[in-house]
Amino acid sequence: MNTIGTTILGSPRIGPDRELKRAMERYWAGRIDAAELLAAGRSLRTRAWTGQRDAGLDSIPSGTFSHYDHVLDTAELFGALPERFTSLGLSPLDTYFAAARGVQDAPALEMTKWFDTNYHYLVPELGPDTKFTLTGSKPLDEYREARALGIETRPVLVGPVTFLLLAKSTAPGFAPLELLDELLPAYAELLRRLRDEGVEWVQLDEPAFAGDRTNAELNALTRAYHVLAKAQDRPKILVAGYFGGLGRGLGVLARSPIEAVAVDLVTDQSFVDAVAAEGALRDKEVLAGVVDGRNVWRTDPDRALEKARKLLGTAAAVSVSTSCSLLHVPYDVERETSLDARVKGWLAFARQKVDEVVLLGRALREEDADLAAARGAVADRATATEVTDPRVRERLAALRPEDAARPPYEQRAAAQQAELGLPPLPTTTIGSFPQTTDVRKARAALRSGELDEAGYVATMHTEIERVVRLQEELGLDVLVHGEPERNDMVQYFAEQLDGFAATESGWVQSYGSRCVRPPILFGDVSRPAPMTVPWARYAQQLSEKPVKGMLTGPVTILAWSFVRDDQPPAETALQVALAIRDEVADLEAAGVRVVQVDEPALRELLPLRAAGHEAYFAWAVRAFRVATSGAADTTQVHTHMCYSEFGEVLPAIDALDADVTSIEAARSKMEVLDDLSGAGFARGVGPGVYDIHSPRVPGVEEMADLLRTAVAAVPAGRLWVNPDCGLKTRGYAEVSPALENLVAAARQVRAEQA
Ligand SMILES: CN1c2c(nc(N)[nH]c2=O)NC[C@@H]1CNc1ccc(C(=O)N[C@@H](CCC(=O)N[C@@H](CCC(=O)N[C@@H](CCC(=O)O)C(=O)O)C(=O)O)C(=O)O)cc1
Ligand SMILES: N[C@@H](CCS)C(=O)O
Ligand SMILES: [Zn+2]
Q1: Which of 83, 236, 495, 723 could, after both became Cys, cross-link 259 (CB 3.0–4.6 A)?
Q2: What is the pLDDT of residues 539-550, one digit of tens each?
Q3: Is residue 32 part of a domain?
Q4: Distance 730 CA to ligand 2 centre (A)
């Protein structure tokens, strides 16, 4: 059998210096043409493939590059973009970007989280009339492109079942999975064409099977791979499951006439036994995903080899791989010049992970492989005193149940009303105001030394004052300072907390051209000094109105960082919670009467399988409550959620016990309110009435109508009026009129209620 051998399931694609981001944004702004954009992509692919070849990988993936998102690529490949984009008469590239970003009268495809990661994909829209035809040629083009460089690759595609499960139905009562038999011939045709081209192996990703799946969905998996495997003239098929164990999907794949299965042996530590026990894998190659594709720690070679060796003899061949695509980690730790040298020695980014895979592959084949450096790094981290802080440990051990509880809501609500005297349907925003070029330039200048600290503070103060005055003019009731000083709502805090390291070049794609630099949480967390208080105090003294103190919650800080893997997340979250708790106390002491603790990632960390939900809710809710329960009754605690379907987390949102919860709702027309009421939620709630993902300015009547829908579900005394999320990605030209309309809508509905 001709095996795959050592490999990775996919690569980062935005570019080590975010070259693709810059090229895309220039193209959208009309500053470069399509040829230049395509050349930027080609150059990145060449670098990725040649680098992987030179590192000695046996099999190199292709097709994991994307101009925006790989799920959108799949919809385009099979001719499944909605008519509202294909009818615009644009070039294929601009049609693709229209679907990703929207144009006037053709709103973008919805964007949602890719499983439990911080990457967002575009949700395909499929209905009973959707027809699939192989209209694109991206996998073939990229395969040919690599071959022209002398590099044989393995095209990677989203698998047909996962593609359909990720799609949204355009017709009531219709499930996209019903389209499987329509879709499979298009995949089979693609496989045939890839084979004609000379492709030996193709990889089909089915991460949807890391979650709970119904019998019908498992049957679809069976059917898909029996049909595809039967296709004449096809490459050998590797099916990759990742972000967890495959559950019953493993048996299905074992019984399918495919040639190889990639399994994630990092996320679910017990899954290796299931794979070893699955005798039916005897005729297949197994790719042992023992190098963590989504965290940054160097792999423990002995533990990794132990897992891979368990599989020897249970499969036709065993090779070493990453647990998932390397899309979720930065490029190269060697680019970091300011990281603490000791911490740096514990890390592996994408480039280092490729080397780890190659080394472990050699060790597994009992070839010459020197594991000493890898063993040394792992041992150094395990024994480093920098990782443990006895004071933090003591504080955690001393936590009492009452530290996670406030007095009853009714008592707090009365005290807060006496303190704040807000009108019914109070208006507010979520925190950030547009991050202007001037603000970002000032931060870049501070970093480069062109601007000193005093100059930077003065620029931020000017910005804060402008934002506060604007809100006063607009007539908002609870103000914000606008968050101009924050590069990112997680990174900003991580940079000030002990136990975290920040990177300079550790960019990871979040969606399209937008990137984040997840901080690295390597040790016990504590707060050496207040993190937001001077800005909050400055903003509050500018106005008689309450200005919200703005913090990020412990769950979101964990979700958007690379988190240590040497202790349970519950413990790490409590450490972060204690730091936030101290910040809340300091904000109160500085005269701040409303504090918002954002938890937009509460849904994101929800385990993919229901069996893990209860334990997750327990630690996530406790961490939020520890962070906020030190607040006085008179201090109004807000929280905020966005970016997700909330259904499964509604009971947890209730259990957070925040006084006010603002929640994304504009696009779903307030549906979340009925669900919240159904879950027994009886505190303040601010369903978003302004969709900030769109440049559209909503009208007064449109928002008033949403509020009228809302007052039918929530008593006016508990209803807040706010946008869906922060305004940082928008411009003032849209934000000022939109907020003016929002205040007018609130006043109108207030008058109707009187
Ligand atoms: C709310 N969301 C967030 C998620 N994850 C986070 N960690 N943070 C989030 O806010 N996940 C879910 C969503 C995802 N949404 C977004 C929205 C917007 C961005 C975004 O705009 N990212 C920026 C980078 C932000 C940043 O770190 N800025 C820094 C550095 C700015 C920079 O690159 N500067 C340039 C020079 C600038 C100049 O001269 O004008 C440079 O250094 O080269 C800062 O402001 O200081 C992006 O551009 O991609 C991400 C996720
Ligand atoms: N306070 C943050 C929340 C984003 S989810 C903001 O306004 O940008
Ligand atoms: Zn938000």
Answers
A1: 236
A2: 999 999 999 999
A3: no
A4: 12
